[in-house]
Amino acid sequence: MLSSPWARFYSNSCCLCCHVRTGTIILGVWYLIINSVVLLILLSALTDPDQYHLTSAELGGDFEFMDDANMCIATAISLLMILICAMATYGAYKQHAAWIIPFFCYQIFDFALNTLVAISVLVYPSTIQDYLRQLPSNFPYKEEIMSVNPTCLVVIILLFISIILAFKGYLISCVWNCYRYINGRNNSDVLVYITTNDTAVLLPPYDDPVNGAAKDPPPPYVSA
User: Per-residue DSSP letters for 67-117?
Assistant: First the structure.
């Protein structure tokens, strides 16, 4: 029997030898906590703009950091992420495979963005130096980073991005395996239910043989 080439990557266990459902729940709760903290910071910044407002003089550029429009967009994204993470956690806990799909799509989108960043660094390595020059003058370790050999800096950044991509790819496989596990288990439950009902329908009712036997009385007793 031929199996799908993707079946070799399917596993019910993930990091720390826990089940994929448990791993997905932990991952969803972790993302939920992070986005909740970000949302609290954004809401506090909206209520007190002067505390988080940085002018162009402080940034050393001709732009402002986190104006009202950007804050509103970031708040909306945080709310959407909280909803997606809550759906994934609930879906993994209650074994609803469809609830995990939005979180899985977010993981694919995030992985694609990081891949594009790695490709842009590889194709245009000079963009790193341009980005460093645009940083504020009081940015921590700016001078030390710019003093590093550009080739070594590109290699270090690519290595760092590769480790992040490998980790994100492993998390994607864990969520996908959780989706397959829940979907397969739900399908097996439906199959067992249908098979049980078909067996019950095919078997004759218990009263029918009894009634059929009662219709044919025994022959009358004849004395010799």
Answer: -HHHHHHHHHHHHHHHHHHHHHHHHHHHT-GGGGHHHHHHHHHHHHHHHHH
* Better-scored residue on pLDDT, 66 or 42: 42
Q: Are 35 and 29 in contact (CB under 8 A)?
A: no
The structure's pTM equals 0.69
Confidence of residue 100 (pLDDT cuts 50, 70, 90): very high
Q: Say how many C-beta atoms besides its own lie within 10 A of residue 169's C-beta.
A: 14
The answer to whether residue 80 scores a pLDDT higher than 90 is: yes
What mean pLDDT do residues 197-207 have?
A: 47
Q: What is the mean pLDDT of residues 158-179?
A: 92
Helix ranges restricted to H, the chain: 20-47, 49-52, 56-59, 68-94, 101-123, 126-134, 142-146, 150-202, 207-215
State the Cα–Cα distance between residues 191 and 218, nearest whole angstrom.
45
> Beta-carbon neighbour count of residue 84 at 10 Å?
22
Phi, psi for residue 8 in degrees, rounded to 5: -70, -20
**Which of 169, 192, 190, 178 lies closest to 112 in space, CA to CA?**
169
For residue 66, what are its two tokens? 């986190």
Dist CA 195 CA 201 (whole Å): 10
The residue written with tokens 């480790």 in the block is: 163
In this structure, are residues 209 and 65 in contact, taking their beta carbons and an 8 Å threshold?
Answer: no
